[in-house]
Amino acid sequence: MARVDKAPRFSAEEAVRRASELYGLDAVASPLPSERDQNFHLRDAAGARFVLKIANQEESPAVLDLQNSLLNFLGAHPTGLEFPRVVPASGGSTIASVTGSDGVKYFVRLLTWVDGICMAQAAPHSVQLLRSLGAALARMDRALESFSHPAAHRAFHWDLRQAGLARAHLDLLPEERRGLIEPIFDAWATIDWSALRAGVIYNDANDYNILVDASGSRVVSLVDFGDVVHSATVCDLAIALAYAMLDKPDPIAAAAEVGAAYHHGRPLTAPEVEALYTLAATRLASSVCYAAWQAAQAPGNDYLNISNQPAWTLIERLAALPPDWPNEVFRRVCGFSRGGRTAASLGAARRHTLGPSLSLSYRHPLHIIRGWKQHLYDATGRVYLDCVNNVAHVGHSHPRVVEAAARQMALLNTNTRYLHEHLTGYIERLTATLPEPLRVAFLVTSGSEANELALRLARAHTGGNQVVVVDAAYHGNTNALVEISPYKFNGPGGRGKPAHVHVAQMPDVYRGPHRGPGAGARYAESVADAAGHAADQATGLAAFFCESALGCGGQIILPPGYLKKAFAAVRATGGVTIADEVQTGFGRAGSHFWMFETQDAVPDIVTMGKPIGNGHPMGAVVTTAEIAASFSNGMEYFNTFGGNPVSCAVGLAVLDVIRDEALRENALSTGEFLLAGLRALAARHPIIGDVRGLGLFLGFELVRDPATREPAAAEASALVDRMKDLGVLLSTDGPFHNVIKIKPPMVFSRADAGMLLDRLDAALS
Ligand code: PMP
User: What's the CA gap between 190 and 148, in Å, rounded?
Assistant: First the structure.
């Protein structure tokens, strides 16, 4: 490593004098930044500009000749880039020498100046610029395929093949950071270098060496050829990727743009694609290791560590990605992935082959191929913060859930007519989360099946047939449930309210008739009225179905006192109370494991779905021993898949993760933070008419006018689309489609909430 303390130390006046003596230039000089060498910007009387390069005293003339030859070579090839030209000294030599006041001899070169803005200062980088970078590097690397020079075959610490030299400084890093870097070097150690094409490479496409045009959309030049070496050619691209990812909110998407453009101009081989990400990460790892080493040489020079902050931030961001995800993205964008149908062709095929009664989300539908924790990843490599997926409760693809399913799948999967530890164990764990007397469970495979069964239980227990539901509710997709779901029977294609169904008012304290204290009791009167009316019918009241917070109704939090009073009224008329916790259960409320508990009320039946299996199709009904006994009339309830050992293993893993990762507690603290942030946003953006939420079940309502509360549906859907473009997934709900719902995986962090709020602020502004 050329030592920094062997760098030349000429003054600007000396530089001017040498330029005159050696090159006959009458110029003014100003110093340029350089670590190992010394560079001066020169401008002569005619305005011509140059760089005077005085090399480190340890630099060999052969390497300087390598650099000159390479510049001459590239200058003579049609790369579409402008490279500095080598200007010979008056005597004709392209490498001159000077003796400094320290008595040491230094080599000197003069290069022409190339105009441009360095890429580091052209941020934010457009997709166009990233593609231009990939294309420019590909053109240069293609040209370099026919270049050779003996001095390029050198042992050089910035050659990624030599990253072991950087790794040797690992113990200079603080221990908590070592854990981030070690896996990178471990992956590097597995690279089969013989499988990678080799040649002379530029080896330093960092964002300070890349020059872009004034519009910031095109790469015009690459400068500083001091790191040129004979190595694996894919390292040129890998190094560019390392820097292109810096300071990017979505680094892999940025790298994918550069990589795809490079591959288009100079196709990569399969082994190169496999090595690409590891090499890019190795460059970052080497940088932080060398910086730590330099800092150790110059204690007190905090700059050396501070300047590495963007690299550390990126390394942390990359460490949070799903395993192997960057490689999968590079495989895809370079055409090495199986099943790589485009979004457009999938969309077209879907239109002909999937029942058309289901719309896709977003104007430009997403093609999601990976989920990890609270993020979803699309086929182009973009990451999205998932703020609506309450099914992936403990996080997308949680390893403990995946492992539990895979392990049990390999052992046994059968039905519940056999004894099984998982079945009994799971029911014990599940019912233990509920208050007495909810102690008897039925295991099913969806929220709809759970509600369907709950309805049968209620009818069996009461002998009644009538049902009371809350307006705008959705309880499932079966015949019987569509009939008790106003969201469906009053919606497009619906057949209207059946005679056996009685609809109570939505307890909406923002839009409904009752607001303020006492509203809960007033809305409960609507349930009492409906129940009374139902009880008067020939067949009597079977059940009152109520979500413990209203989802399709528009993320409505039940007002205090509502359920307790409503349940009492229903029981007084002989009905059974059913809490639909399909959306709201398993700790989402934050303060309690079940949302109904926030109402200080206990239902007769609880139905569960969505989060119960973290995406594995599961549902459950838990009720009292009495109701279960009423249902046991000789007709067996058999469910082929419900309660199978795999599902129970999954259900147990979900309960374990909720407990071990304190996800209910997280829902409470993150939810409160988010609620406060949304309220602060509402204070600044009058289009937000109302903000509400409990734990990580939140919503805000958009209105055209705060006074009239006219729903702003088109604005809500535009906001959702805009947020998708900003990398955040949300969706709308509510009878007027103007409520933005937020119900993310429960691993949603305070940082995620901060990002959501920032981007909402930007989108609303
Ligand atoms: N109840 C509620 C409150 C729901 O939100 C849903 C699904 N959106 C269901 C029941 C039906 O669940 P599934 O789609 O699993 O059948």
Answer: 28
Q: Which CA distances in Å does 289 have to 35, 170, 173? A: 16, 6, 7
**Residue 357: partners with Cβ closer than 8 Å, 6 or more residues away:** none
Cβ contact 545:484 at 8 Å: yes
Q: Are 500 and 485 in contact (CB under 8 A)?
A: no
756 lines ligand 1 (CB under 6 A): no
Token digits for 287? 């940088």
Whether the CB of 551 sits within 6 Å of ligand 1? yes
Mutate to test the pocket of ligand 1, among 582, 647, 741 (most ligand atoms within 8 A of CB): 582
Q: Which long-range contacts (CB under 8 A, 24 or more apart) does 412-419 make?
A: 412/645, 413/644, 413/645, 413/646, 414/644, 414/645, 415/638, 415/640, 415/641, 415/643, 415/644, 416/443, 416/639, 416/642, 416/643, 416/644, 417/638
End-to-end CA gap in the chain: 51
pTM score of the predicted model: 0.91
Alpha helices in 1-154 (DSSP H): 12-23, 61-75, 127-144
Q: What is the DSSP letter of 418?
A: S
Q: Whose CA is nearest to atom 13 of ligand 1?
A: 447
Could you tell me which of 415, 555, 364 has the C-alpha nearest to residue 472? 555
Nearest to 760 by CA among 678, 667, 672: 678
CA of 423 to the centre of ligand 1 (A): 23
Residue 680: CB atoms within 10 A of its CB come to 13
Residues in the chain: 765
Which residues pair with residue 86 across a beta bridge? 111
> How far apart are alpha carbons 45 and 27 in whole angstroms?
6
User: For residue 449, how far is its CA from the centre of ligand 1 (angstroms)?
Assistant: 9
Cis amide linkage into residue 437, ω under 30° from 0: yes
**560-601 per-position pLDDT tens digit:** 999 999 999 999 999 999 999 999 999 999 999 999 999 999
Q: Quick check: 584 and 549 in contact, CB under 8 A?
A: yes
Read off the pLDDT of residues 238-290 as tens digits, 9 standing for 90 and up.
Answer: 999 999 999 999 999 999 999 999 999 999 999 999 999 999 999 999 999 99
Q: Which residues contact 426 (CB under 8 A, 6 or more apart)?
A: 443, 643, 648, 651, 652
733 lines ligand 1 (CB under 6 A): no
- Separation CA 157–CA 164 (nearest Å): 9
Q: Which of 346, 350, 328 is nearest to 338 (CA)?
A: 328
- Are 702 and 738 a contacting pair, CB within 8 Å? yes
Distance CA 259, CA 272 (A): 11
Instruction: Give the helix/strand (H/E) hosting 118.
Output: strand 117-118
558 phi, psi to nearest 5 deg: -65, 135
Cβ of residue 584 lying under 6 Å from some atom of ligand 1: no
The tokens describing 758, both together, are 């920032």
Q: Return the closest-CA partner of residue 342 out of 365, 320, 325.
A: 365
d(CA 167, CA 188): 10
